[in-house]
Amino acid sequence: MSMTTKGSLRWPIAIVGLIALHAAGMLAVILIATRNPSFSVEPDHYQKALAWDRLAARQQASGLLGWKAEVTSEAGSKVALDGARTRGLVCRIVDREGKPVTGATVTMLAFAHARGEERIRFDLRETGPGVYTVRAPMARPGLWELRLSALRGPDLFTTTILHTASNGERR
Q1: How many whole angstroms separate alpha carbon 57 and alpha carbon 15?
Q2: Could you report how far apart the first and last alpha carbons of the chain are, in Å?
Q3: Does the structure show a pLDDT above 50 at 149?
Q4: What is the pLDDT of residue 170?
Q5: The predicted structure's pLDDT at residue 171
Q6: What is the per-residue DSSP string for 86-103?
Q7: Are strands 131-136 and 120-128 parallel, antiparallel or unpaired?
Q8: I need a labelling partner for 116 at 20 to 30 A (CA). Which of 41, 63, 138, 163 fits?
């Protein structure tokens, strides 16, 4: 092979090599994006966007009720050591005058911000006037988003609460 033939192959080989390197990089990014449990997309985001007016009307009606909700961990609640890995949650719901909202059907959708794809839906039960509790499978410490719905008769209250779940350790 002459020097001219060797030199003429360098650029095509370099270009093919760069294209192959780019393709390998894109494949790596796709694999990371689709297999990473920390990455999440809101389920049915397109349908939710199409129904935005209904959602806004529901949020406005919920706001007009004047209800407020507060979620805390049960006193001294740590992740259970029995293998169930549940956390006790207490939800208090009051109306605009501060009176407990009783007799509501309360549900919650919860997910840790660190693992947005792992969503948990559960029902809370009323254990006192305006007090609703559950043992929730929320073993992961950190920031959780809790989407609460309370239905009493024709009244539907919805809210989103950010809750920090600790593992009981103090630093």
Answers
A1: 56
A2: 70
A3: yes
A4: 45
A5: 39
A6: -EEEEEEEE-TTS-B--S
A7: antiparallel
A8: 63
pLDDT at 168: 57
Cα–Cα distance, 159 to 103 (Å, whole number): 18
In this structure, the answer to whether residues 19 and 52 fall within a common structural domain is: no
Report which DSSP code applies to 45: H
136 DSSP 8-state letter: E
Domain range holding 135? Answer: 45-165
Rounded to whole angstroms, the Cα distance separating 163 from 110 reads: 10
Strand partners, 73: 89
Model confidence pLDDT, tens digit, residues 74-111:
765 555 545 677 888 999 999 999 999 999 999 999 99
| 24 and 61 both lie in a single domain | no
Q: Which two tokens stand for residue 142?
A: 């950190």
| Prediction pTM value | 0.72
